[in-house]
C-alpha cells in the first residue's frame, strides 16, 4: 500500500507542478550532520540549514536513509561577493559504501571572482566510471546569491533529470551500451560546502580568499521522496514497482522541453558529448543536438571543433536587464 501512495503523490506532483505538493522535511526528520561541527547551523525549527566554510573547515549533511530512485530537492541560496574556489554541492552518492565502483549524481555550484557569475555543473557517474566524465556546465538567468532557488534531481531506472526552479535543464537517458555506467545502486543524498581552490575557478587560477569568510550556503524546502532501502541488504520489496511507476512521472511535457531547449541553447557553456579534445567519438549515450553543437563551437571553437579561437570584443548583456521570459 505504501508504494501506491508514493506513486500517486509523484504522479500528482508531475501533473500539477514539480515538488509543490511533496512533504518538506525538517533536518532531524531526514538528515544527519556529515562534518563541520559548528559550521552547520539549523534555523526555523530545523526547516532551514546553513552550511559555512571558513579557514578551519567546510561543512555538510547527509540523508539518514539510502534511496533507490526518487525525487530529491532543496531551495538553495549561495554565498555572495568574492567566492572564487568555493564549491557548494547537492548530490547523491554511495562512495562511502562502494569505494571502487560508486555511483553519483551531482549538482555542483562553482564560485567566482567578484563581478563574475556563479556557474552550475551537473555530472553523473555509474559503477566507478569517473574516467569518462559526464559534465555539463551552465550559466544561470538569475543571481543564485540574491535569493533562494529550487534545485532538484529526478532519478529513475531509465533516466535522470536535473531541474532548476522546476525547469528541466538536463535529461540523461540510460542506454544498453552504457552497461553499469548508469547509476543503479542505492545512494544517499548529500549537501556540502568546501574549498575547491585547486580546480573550481579557472582551473585553480583563483583560490578561496578567507578574508571574505565565512562563506554561507543556505538550504531550505528539503525534499526526500523516493524508495528507501535497507542499508544492509540494499533491497526493498516496494522499490521495483515504485521505480516502474516513476517512469510514468518522468515524462517531459512539450512545454517543459521547449523551456529546457531554450535554457541549453542560451546558457550551456560546456557539454562532454561535444568535447572533441577529450572524445574523438562521443560516448555511446550521447544524443547530438546540432543547435547545441553550433552554439558551443562559437563559445569555444577549440574544444568543440569549430576552428581557431577569435579574440574580438564580445558584448555581454547585463544580468539586471534580463528576465526569465527573455532567457527561458
UniProtKB/TrEMBL annotation:
One of its GO terms (molecular function) is hydrolase activity, hydrolyzing O-glycosyl compounds. This is Xyloglucan endotransglucosylase/hydrolase. PANTHER family: XYLOGLUCAN ENDOTRANSGLUCOSYLASE/HYDROLASE PROTEIN 8-RELATED (PTHR31062). Residues 302-328 are annotated as: Disordered. It comes from Hibiscus syriacus. Residues 1-17 form the signal peptide. It is found in: Secreted, Cell wall; Secreted, Extracellular space, Apoplast. The active site is at 104 (nucleophile), 108 (proton donor). Catalyzes xyloglucan endohydrolysis (XEH) and/or endotransglycosylation (XET). Cleaves and religates xyloglucan polymers, an essential constituent of the primary cell wall, and thereby participates in cell wall construction of growing tissues.
Amino acid at each position: 500500500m505504501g508504494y501506491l501512495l508514493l506513486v500517486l503523490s509523484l504522479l500528482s506532483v508531475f501533473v500539477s507542478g514539480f515538488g509543490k505538493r511533496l512533504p518538506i522535511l525538517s533536518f532531524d526528520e531526514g538528515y544527519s550532520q556529515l562534518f563541520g561541527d559548528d559550521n552547520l547551523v539549523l534555523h526555523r525549527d530545523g526547516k532551514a540549514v546553513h552550511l559555512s566554510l571558513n579557514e578551519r573547515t567546510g561543512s555538510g549533511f547527509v540523508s539518514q536513509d539510502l534511496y533507490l530512485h526518487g525525487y530529491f530537492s532543496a531551495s538553495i541560496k549561495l554565498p555572495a561577493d568574492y567566492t572564487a574556489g568555493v564549491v557548494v554541492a547537492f548530490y547523491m552518492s554511495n562512495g562511502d559504501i562502494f569505494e571502487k565502483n560508486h555511483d553519483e549524481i551531482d549538482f555542483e555550484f562553482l564560485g567566482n571572482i567578484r563581478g563574475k557569475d556563479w556557474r552550475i555543473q551537473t555530472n553523473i557517474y555509474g559503477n566507478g566510471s569517473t574516467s569518462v566524465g559526464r559534465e555539463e556546465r551552465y550559466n544561470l538567468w538569475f543571481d543564485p546569491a540574491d535569493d533562494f532557488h529550487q534545485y532538484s534531481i529526478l532519478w529513475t531506472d531509465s533516466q535522470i533529470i536535473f531541474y532548476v526552479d522546476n525547469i528541466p535543464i538536463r535529461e540523461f537517458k540510460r542506454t544498453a551500451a552504457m552497461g553499469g555506467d548508469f547509476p543503479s545502486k542505492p545512494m544517499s543524498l548529500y549537501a556540502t560546502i568546501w574549498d575547491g581552490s585547486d580546480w573550481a575557478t579557472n582551473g585553480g587560477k583563483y583560490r578561496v580568499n578567507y578574508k571574505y569568510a565565512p562563506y554561507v550556503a543556505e538550504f531550505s524546502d528539503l525534499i526526500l521522496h523516493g524508495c528507501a532501502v535497507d542499508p544492509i541488504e540494499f533491497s526493498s520489496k516496494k522499490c521495483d514497482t515504485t521505480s516502474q511507476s516513476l517512469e510514468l512521472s518522468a515524462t517531459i511535457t512539450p512545454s517543459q522541453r521547449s523551456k529546457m531547449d531554450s535554457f541549453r541553447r542560451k546558457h550551456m557553456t560546456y557539454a562532454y558529448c561535444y568535447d572533441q579534445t577529450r572524445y574523438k567519438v562521443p560516448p555511446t549515450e550521447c544524443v547530438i543536438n546540432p543547435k547545441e553543437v553550433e552554439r558551443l563551437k562559437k563559445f569555444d571553437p577549440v574544444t568543440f571543433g569549430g576552428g581557431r579561437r577569435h579574440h574580438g570584443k564580445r558584448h555581454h548583456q547585463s544580468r539586471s536587464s534580463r528576465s526569465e521570459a527573455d532567457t527561458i
